[in-house]
Design brief:
2 copies of one chain form a homodimer. Chain A is α/β, with parallel strands linked by helices. Chain A has 2 domains: 143 residues, Rossmann fold (3-Layer(aba) Sandwich); 113 residues, 3-Layer(aba) Sandwich (Rossmann fold), CATH 3.40.50. Chain A contains 11 helices and 10 strands. The first copy, chain A, has a 6-stranded parallel β-sheet, sandwiched between helices. In chain A, strands 6-5-7-8 form a 4-stranded parallel β-sheet. Chain A is globular and about 50 Å long.
């Protein structure tokens, strides 16, 4: 057993969708979260910047004595997961392989859609991972640069949001895709609008939620589970931007009261 | 990617229930299986013997250049998983933690039943693992020494089998258990009879099938997936007893044609 917290990092508030799933599936685990909203979105940035920023977040989490790190951001996973995993001596989990595996398991018709930030789509990492396991599967990728900024500004159910989501997803409609990977952890906050745009016949894969299965398996494998005997978990959230806005989005999404602190990295 | 096979070991034919789930979930992976039917069942043996026999099987699998070992036997997992995992430099997966985690997730009423071999039940390992994660959950354990021998003799749907299963499970009936862990990989072959005995209101947890989720996650985590580009997998099965009987049970269960070789360890 290991009673230290699990560290989560994201470019902003998107990783909260991953934390929500952790709290549901592994309620005894404790979270330390850092969101880099001051520098969000990461998607349109250079690989070099994404690498540097993500390492800033990793170094911050290491000061909190975490037992495991979840890179709860597809863009950061695409660019720097393997590097971080190789350099740390604690397990480091990304969101892309879990999302790709779940998509293959769900897909029936041989064609999977992937939406994500410009960097994630440009890296073509979902196609690569999906086709290694299932070469005959077709992958249709679409960059949605306007989605993460909507979520960061807590604009998730307005008419503007509905319009942006619908317009952005037009190229994905009627293309024979029956499985759509939400390849950015911000997107589950827009899930109702995305489902409405693509129709009920399309199964949405939440890459972040899928990665919690991996967290659970790796906690078992490395024998790192937190014991309930330690009492209720005391989650801690940090943001590089406004603690007030972060708290508003987070409490609305997680349905629990939390403490948020601003930090400068 | 790593195109080497995954090694499976069991006291006999029970691990085939785990292989079946692997073939369903991860059809591109290749299997090398060793079943020690000549010395089955392991359940009533001493810990020392189980340890020695299991290491014999591990050494055999290592000669086949496996990339990962699945201890597809609850008894062997209970006694020697941690030791083998610590000594090998490839991932080693047992069936008990996956079964315990799945049972906690499924359980609603706060009381989980566990059935297994005498050694597994005597080790009390399911209770220990379940209560570490969920201390308030009650665990009711029952040793079923006659089940594995029934399966080893391919007696899985006869009237005798029905009678043995029903009589053995009487202490588990009407005890408020809504989740029952099949804590021996032989037991899924008796699943219809077990379900009939305990009633439809009880969810059965197949510890072996659950462990394939762990295999999938660890293949991803350690980047050991087999590529489809290598062509169809060529599974290989070995038994320390009669190849003919093993083949009969295995083909009936897996619904594929396989090659079985007898080996002396």
């Amino acid at each position: 057993m290991d009673n230290r917290p699990i560290g989560f990092l994201d470019s902003g508030v998107g990783g909260l969708t991953v934390v929500k799933e952790l709290i549901r599936q592994l309620p005894q685990e404790e979270v330390v979260y850092i969101g880099d909203s001051a520098r969000a979105p990461y998607g349109p940035r250079s690989a070099e910047q994404i690498r540097d920023f993500t390492w800033d977040l990793v170094r911050f989490l290491l000061t909190k004595d975490v037992k495991m790190i979840v890179i709860a951001c597809n863009t950061a996973t695409a660019v720097v997961w393997e590097d971080i995993k190789a350099k740390l001596d604690i397990p480091v989990i990304g969101v892309i392989l879990p999302g790709a595996s779940a998509a293959i398991q769900t897909n029936q018709g041989g064609k999977i859609g992937v939406i994500g930030t410009p960097m994630t789509i440009q890296s073509d990492i979902y196609r690569e991972k999906i086709q290694l396991l299932s070469p005959q599967t077709e992958v249709m990728s679409l960059s949605c640069p306007r989605f993460a900024p909507l979520v960061e500004s807590n604009e998730i159910s307005s008419n503007l949001a509905r319009q942006v989501v619908y317009e952005s997803l037009i190229p994905m409609i009627d293309q024979g895709v029956d499985t759509l990977v939400l390849g950015c952890t911000h997107y589950p906050l827009l899930r109702p609008l995305i489902q409405e745009a693509v129709g009920d016949g399309v199964s949405l894969i939440d890459s972040g939620a899928e990665c919690i299965r991996d967290v659970s398996v790796l906690l078992n494998y490395f024998q790192l589970n937190r014991s309930w005997q330690e009492g209720e978990p005391n989650h801690r959230f940090y943001t590089t931007a406004s603690a007030k806005i972060f708290k508003e989005i987070a409490e609305n999404w997680l349905k629990i009261e939390i403490n948020v602190e601003h930090v400068d990295l």
